[in-house]
Structure formats: structure tokens, C-alpha cells
Amino acid sequence: MIEEKDIELAERYLCGALSKAEYVKVEQRLASDPVFKRRVEMMRELSNMYSGEAEDFRALLEDAHLEYTNQNQPSAFKRYWLVAASLSLLLLAAAYFFFQNGSADPQQLYAEHFSLPPDNLTVRTELPEQELINTAMEQYNDGQHQQASVLFAQALEARPDSVPILFYSAVNLMALGNIEEAVPQLQNVVAKGNSSYFMPAQWYLALIYLQVNQKAEAERILNELQNASSSYASKAERLLEEFD
Length: 244
Description:
mainly alpha, 78% helix, 0% strand, 12 helices
């Protein structure tokens, strides 16, 4: 999630108030952090919108004030304040609309809430494909998701019904952006019933449904998680509040 210090950093970045070292760090973060990048873009768009409106606002006020000064009539005075009040309300409404719509963007919510689960894959060590599974998890933990994907696929050929391998293969595919391939694997985990991967699989399915704008399905799963006794209850509640 975006913190207050991130907002301040983005403001200083947009105002050109960063040191050279700070600027380099922000540029690096923009390249690697999609949530932070989206928030900076939102702030830049709002700033540009406001600056453009402000120029028009000042021009209209100057015209109305000149009319009032030259004519010294109540009608001119009234027009001056109507212009000021109307444009102020328009700016406030535009800002409210912008942030309301920006905050509930499915892509942004997905990026904010998606993170890779830790490695707690457990399979029997005497399995002949154990070395393959271990290598896949090493690649997964090192962020080498393309290589891990190939190895997980090979492991699933040997053990197509393995819940742990299905789960980690799916979230690894999500990290690559291959959500269409991840969905049936997560659905398979959920369909197999209660296991330590059941609720995590539900959580990641909900995130995928949210990203593809299937909000009803995402909400159904999140409501189930919210009513469950697990660490996912609070996460589901928070996400429901954010996109409602």
C-alpha cells in the first residue's frame, strides 16, 4: 500500500524538489513499482488539470473584477463572486471524481494487493522428481519466474494432482502476468477441498477476478474469506472496502 511518505516523495518529485540522488532512486522505483508509478501519474494528471483550470479561473476573475471596477455596479460584483464560486466547485468536483475513480481501479487494486507467498512447499523427499521441484522453488524464490514456470510444468506432468505444486505454479504464472493459465490451477486447488493451500488459492483467485473486472465473482470469494477464521479475513475485508 502507498504510505504518506510516498505521497510526499511523489509531490517533491513532481515539483522538482529532489536531490540528484533522490531523483535517481525515484526513477528506479517508478520502473519497478507499478503501484507507486500509477499514484505518481494520478497526481501529475490532477496537477495538470488543476493548473489548466487555474489559468482560466484567474482570467475570468480578472475580467469580472475589471468589469466591477469600471462599472462599480452590484451586478458586476455578483458576477465576480458567482464565477469564483462556480469554478471552485468545479475544481473540487473534478478532484473528487478523479480520486474516487482512481482509488477503485481494478488494475491498481490488484497491483497493491498481489504479492508472492513465501516458500512453504512440502512434498515427500523420496519422490523421484524432488530435485526438479526443489530447483523450481529455487528459481521462484530468486525471481526467475520464466525458468520456474518451465520446471513447474515439468513437475506437474509427473504429479498433476499435487496441490502444493499446482498452487506455486499458479502464483508463479501470476507473477509472469499469465493469469489465464493460473486460473484453472487455482480452481483445481480449491476444488480439492480443505488444505493449507485452500484459502490462499481463494485469495489469489479473487485477485484475478478483480483484475479482469469480474467483481461479482471476486466479491463472492472475498466474502467467504472474510467470514473465515484465518489471516485472510482481514485482508479480504480491507479489499472489499476499497473496491465497494
